[in-house]
Amino acid sequence: MTVPYYSQQNHGPFETFALGDFDLEGGDRLRGASLAYATFGTLAADGRNAILFPSWYSGTSKILELAYIGSDRALDPNKYFIILVNQIGNGLSSSPSNASAPFNAARFPRITIGDDVRAQHRLISEKFGIEQLALVLGGSMGAQQTYEWAVRFPDAVARAAPIGGTARTTPHNRLLVDTFIDAITSDPAFDSGWYKEGAVHRGLRRHARLFAVSGFTQTLFNQPGWRDLGFTTTDDFVTGFVENHFLPQDPNNLILLAQKWRDADVSRLTHHDLPAALGKIKARTSVIAIEEDVFFPLADIAAEQTLIPRSALKRVSSVWGHLALFGTDPGYNRTIDVHLTELLASH
Asked: In sequence order, what DSSP letters do the residues of 125-179 get, joined into one string?
């Protein structure tokens, strides 16, 4: 099934890197696998100016570009070679929505954050010949991938900036993500993942509203802080902003991403010893927390940061909560740029 939302017109320009038949951590094989990515800037002769930025839940390289890249931003393509990579399952890289039968839709294999990072390592080494990245960063699920990079390939990451995410999903966060999955699958039209295009809109709308009530802060709704975007009521905002974001997307893709989010755990690499896993990190690390975040609360992020050598906890405040990641809050954008500029200037 071709889903128009994931087109070059909407999310390009992006290129694809062929992985071939890619063996997964769970024992399955992803046949004809590919990663979609976009690059900005020029790779230095010594390859030392490369930055990798993986996508988050429901995000794409185009969304990252619009929210974080610019000549007046910390991620300046005049200085750095920036690779925005789409995680497996996001609709641009190999996904349930674009895989060939019989391994499409509900038959698409389960993917882990570790699978994403192993695939991305092949992209940077085989396509670009990069041995060490100047910076790996990402928000939310991108932060999960950032931690996986820093633990799995410690010598390949000079600096790391996980934003609004944890290295191991907490029990509370797992429960939250399960509600997102349940909202989609509870729609009778879901039909165990064998739905017709557009049929699961009720489940996607329920999912969007659950996402909104925990992704934003109470203050945003109560002030109301969304009027500057042109919305008239709370319902108008949730429908026009959040439902509008999720409705064009493929339900199987979202469920695959949510399962990866829920099950993320870098301590898999150290027999489930989280201090041992985070102790492997060699990168200079700025662990960035959004103070009002409900998805990934400050206390959870701070508890992990203390386990990381050469790390510092950085804070940013936004009434947009976790979803400030989308770049809607100018104050968040300025503070993030300060933290990233400081990190990139470090030796």
From this structure: IIIT--SSBSEEEEETHHHHHHHHHHHHSGGGBSEEEEES--SB--HHHHHHHHH
Neighbours of 76 (CB within 10 A): 17
Q: What is the pLDDT of residues 207-248, one digit of tens each?
A: 999 999 999 999 999 988 889 889 999 999 999 999 999 999
CATH of the domain at 319: 3.40.50.1820
Catalytic annotation, pick one of 58, 95, 140, 311? 140
Q: Model-level pTM?
A: 0.98
Whole-number Å distance between alpha carbons of 55 and 58: 8
Block means of pLDDT (10 residues each) for the chain, length 347 residues?
Answer: 91 98 98 98 96 98 98 98 98 98 97 98 98 98 98 98 98 97 98 97 98 95 89 95 98 98 97 98 98 97 98 97 96 98 95
Catalytic residue, from 245, 322, 329, 339: name it.
322
Judge whether 76 counts as a catalytic residue.
no
Residue type, 155: D
**Domain-embedded: residue 327:** yes
Helix (H, G, I), strand (E, B) or coil at 271: coil
**What confidence tens digit (pLDDT) does each residue in 24-47 have?**
999 999 999 999 999 999 999 999
Domain carrying residue 94: 4-170+265-345
| CA dihedral sign, ordered 268, 274, 275, 279 | positive
Specify whether the CB–CB gap between 228 and 61 falls below 8 A: no
Please tell me which residue in 116, 250, 265, 293 is annotated as part of the active site: 293
Domain tally for the chain? 1
Active site residue 140: yes
